[in-house]
Amino acid sequence: MDHINIGILSIQGDVEENILATRYCFKKLSxxxxxxxxxxxxxxxxxxxxxxxxxxxxxxxxxxxxxxLLKKLQNKxxxxxxxxxxxxxxxxxxxxxxDKKIGQTNQIHMDLLDVEVERNHFGRQQNSFESDIEIMLxxxxxxxxxxxxxxxxxxxxxxxxxxxKLYDNIIAxxxxxxxxxxxxxxxxxxxxxxxxxxxxxxxxxxxTQI
Amino acid sequence: MISLCGDITNPKGVIKRKIxxxxxxxxxxxxxxxxxxxxxxxxxxxxxxxEQAHIAEDAGAVAVMVLDKLPSDxxxxxxxxxxxxxxxxxxxxNTVTIPVMAKCRIGHVYEAxxxxxxxxxxxxxxxxxxxxxxxxxxxxxxxxxxxxxxxRSLSEAxxxxxxxxxxxxxxxxxxxxxxxxxxxxINKVNYDLAILxxxxxxxxxxxxxxxxxxxxVSYSTLEKTAHLGRLPxxxxxxxxxxxPADAAYLMSLGxxxxxxxxxIFKSSDAKERAYAIVLATTFWNDPDKVQEAQNxxxxxxxxxxxxxxxxxxxxxxRGSN
Lengths: 210, 321
Hints:
The complex is a heterodimer. By secondary structure, chain A is an alpha/beta fold. Chain A has a single domain (about 5-210), classed as Class I glutamine amidotransferase (GATase) domain (Rossmann fold), CATH 3.40.50.880. Chain A contains five helices and 13 strands. Chain A has helices at about 15-30, 55-65, 70-80, 90-95, 190-210; strands at about 5-10, 35-40, 50, 85, 95-100, 105, 115-120, 130-135, 140-145, 150-155, 160-165, 170-175, 180. Chain A is globular and about 45 Å long. The two termini of chain A are about 15 Å apart. By secondary structure, chain B is of the alpha/beta class. Chain B has a single domain (about 35-310), classed as Alpha-Beta Barrel (TIM Barrel), CATH 3.20.20. Chain B has helices spanning about 30-35, 50-60, 70-75, 85-95, 110-120, 155-160, 180-200, 205-215, 220-230, 245-250, 260-265, 270-280, 285-295; strands at about 15-20, 20-25, 45, 65, 100-105, 120-125, 145-150, 165-170, 235, 255-260. The chains are: A alpha/beta, B alpha/beta. At the A-B interface, helix 1, helix 2 and strand 8 of A face strand 2, helix 1 and helix 12 of B. Strand 8 (about 130-135) of chain A pairs antiparallel with strand 2 of chain B, so a sheet runs across the interface.
């Protein structure tokens, strides 16, 4: 049967919450799809979309080099597969990474999204926060933003479209097949970003079937 | 979505703050428990110096826990063990990008206030330190910083959660290099959960309310936990873990991640062992990788383990009320 195949990079972080949000989204959209945990390279070729969940970006990056996962996923994303990076996922996808306190970090990353991110931009855990936010998708959408030791996007390249800002901080962007947020939609009930992402994956799936 | 089971209305730790230009809300249950969710499938390492913190970060640790002495040294030194020096905590916060946690004594509200002011990412109300209050744990809802607490059973875990803990670690016996107690307690929590679910499935509410009274927790918390079929917060294993195989085994028993205390920095191959334990935790379900991880360490370099039956001090028994 023809179905779309979404992978969650399952190295470290809140993988389970992303699986649940994706499944809920399939149900709501009446979409026939499967969600797979990706922690080795056997499934990559079948994927129609990848979600990189929240977690510790240094840990996810380091352990994603086992099985050359990072490189293989990088190639697949370069060939047009949609990817959705959340918090640590945003950091992993970015071209330039700084840390609020430490400055430039030499951590491993995918070097795909033409932005500069600052890790821990809003401070440590005590400054993790909730706030109402607006995201520009097909139309302007109001939702709740959960920011946990979140990064912020401090510079963007010409190809990058801003999807959301909070008090002048860029918190969500899109660059062709890549979307990334500094907040955690998987920790809320609102799956609007998942719907947006799944529709990108559906288009990609349809195009690659021809 | 994450479970808010056991939370209270209007806790004092929820505050409005100005961040950059606007007002936002900090310290909510979602933010505190959400922080712990981001640590899942990771390893948190006990450290006592900047140098050790660097080794931990480079090895792929998801966070470090700052102590004055490693648990095995606490055991040897005897006397009263207290929270670490603020100076060391600050130095470590200034050098690593991963979260920094610190321990306070059980019930010591003001050590916790000091750690909150120091701006650590999470506070461990820990039996490794000497308890300050033998009758009360800290009322953790008053803090914006999330707390992790130890447990040896489901009832102990739920009591800590009702006091505001955002994360649980099943207690082992700290500083022994012996994993037997960590395994005993995750098994106990799993048995308790299985029994709870069968009680709920019986449809007899009297059984559940009686269990809630036995457990000294609310009916609501118990009922929601039965519905979830797991602890309502993230649960790591702790105490006595010293090899990659130890870590992988505990992950296979349903733990969400691993705390390593003395196991790394009391071995003679700390750097290799730190990465090996991370590797085995990440790929616990992949026998090739666990074997590869175990092959990175040398058993001759492991810390000398202690037999639990010969211990004078059992730290795990502290703060079980």
